[in-house]
Write a structure and sequence with these properties.
Layout: E1 2-7, E2 26-34, E3 55-61, E4 68-71, H1 78-88, H2 105-108, E5 114-117, E6 135-138, E7 158-160, E8 181-183, H3 194-197, H4 201-204, E9 207-209, E10 230-232, E11 253-255, E12 273-277, E13 291-292, H5 300-310, H6 322-329, E14 332-333, E15 339-340, E16 345-352, E17 357-361, E18 370-377, H7 380-385, H8 387-390
Parallel strand pairs: 5-6, 6-7, 7-8, 8-9, 9-10, 10-11, 11-12, 12-17
Antiparallel strand pairs: 1-2, 2-3, 3-4, 13-16, 14-15, 16-18
Length: about 400
């Protein structure tokens, strides 16, 4: 039996000689072996042969494939430890033991942490990806879906699926709890699912590249990626950004050039970016007259929704109907900080993008750095108090 691990061989004689061990482990294959005797043992009285041959630990590294034999003593794996304990006691080991043979180079490949594949001919079809991978790139491989074998790589931190033909992402990508960098550049994605936004990626994802796809809109739940620092949305078909963009407090680099954005959401002004690129969008000039959707008195639905959101009362589909949860998730935020569902005043104004980003790419060929921002007001009083901002 074999255990793939990092091994550090420590000599107890070194301290006595005034030497210290380096304390650095190396990738190795640790085997529990049983070496065949050189001579046939003599049978004991009564026709019985001698006891079982002593087992040993056999350590093989990439530089020493033939390996070095040691007396069996311990292991971190429970089953391996049990076998070693039996061998140390001189008992029969009830598991298959490896023979003393040199280790193949392919066995050390299982410790790979990075794999880059950039052509179809190099894509593995008959064997799995090394389980220890932390960085996997499979670009220009003609993939039309995410290979489910990738979702078994629990140590994966960076996944690059750029330049393929992927149309849909499985929700199980959210099970890669250590994933920090996801590159989906140049695929055929049309949507980004709510399930992914609500997965464990909320806590792990730092960088996301969705550029050169066919995405028209991102769900409001997208703003739950609170640890996201780098977001690329260039060359899509976006007609709007999530109106709760301001909740992406960790975001520092945002690129959404060459889309179809007519305006920016009101919470966009809450961002604090280092780099912003909105070049080539179809920004519309601010409207002179606001859109008024006020109702007096407020409906029961509007009043209840505002109360729930203002007091941060927990809600879910197990408490109220699902469509009401969607209404609450998409509620607008007034400039005063209160919420409104379907009763509001909507106005637009311009914002200098340097107020939210240190470095700004010009939004057009005329050298402009301003963009229209849509704002919501929960009452006429809020609108009047903010009229100077809307001029």
């Amino acid at each position: 039996m074999k255990l793939y691990c990092e091994v550090e061989v420590i000599s107890r004689h070194l301290p006595a000689l005034g030497l210290r061990n380096r304390g650095k482990g190396v990738r190795a294959v640790l085997s529990l072996c049983q070496q065949a005797p050189r001579t046939q043992p003599r049978p004991r009285a009564g026709g019985e042969r001698g006891g079982p041959h002593p087992a040993c630990l056999f350590i093989s590294t990439l530089k020493d494939k033939r390996g070095t034999r040691y007396e069996a003593n311990s292991s971190s794996l429970k089953g391996f430890l049990s076998a070693v304990r039996l061998a140390h006691r001189g008992c029969d080991v009830a598991v298959p033991l490896s023979t003393l043979t040199p280790v193949k180079t392919s066995e050390f490949e299982k410790f790979k942490t990075k794999m880059v594949i950039t052509s179809k001919k190099d894509y593995p079809l008959s064997k799995n990806f090394p389980y220890s991978l932390e960085h996997l790139q499979t670009s220009y491989c003609g993939l039309v879906r995410v290979d489910m074998r990738m979702l078994c790589l629990k140590n994966l931190k960076k996944l690059d699926l750029s330049h393929n033909h992927i149309k849909k992402l499985p929700a199980t990508i959210g099970d890669l709890i250590h994933l920090q960098d996801l590159n989906l550049n140049d695929n055929h994605l049309e949507t980004f699912s709510v399930a992914l936004c609500q997965s464990t990626l909320q806590k792990s994802l730092r960088s996301l590249d969705l550029s050169k796809n066919k995405i028209k809109a991102l769900p409001v739940q997208f703003c739950q990626f609170r640890e996201l620092t780098d977001l690329k949305l260039d060359d899509n078909e976006l007609i709007r950004l999530p109106f709760k963009m301001g909740q992406l407090k960790s975001l520092r680099f945002l690129s959404a050039a060459r889309n179809k954005l007519p305006f920016l959401p009101s919470e966009f002004k809450n961002l604090s970016l280092e780099y912003l690129d909105l070049f080539g969008n179809t920004f519309e000039p601010p409207k002179v007259l606001p859109v008024i959707k006020l109702q007096v008195p407020l409906t029961l639905l509007e009043s209840s929704a505002r109360t729930i959101l203002y007091n941060r009362i927990p809600y879910g589909s197990h408490i109220i109907p699902f469509h009401l949860c969607q209404d609450l998730d998409t509620a607008k935020t007034c400039v005063c900080g209160k919420f409104c569902l379907s009763c509001f005043i909507q106005g637009t104004t311009t914002m200098n993008l340097h107020s939210v980003a240190h470095t700004v790419v010009l939004v057009d060929n005329m050298g402009g750095t301003e963009a229209p921002v849509i704002s919501y007001f929960c009452s006429l009083a809020c609108y009047v108090n903010s009229c100077d901002m809307l001029k």
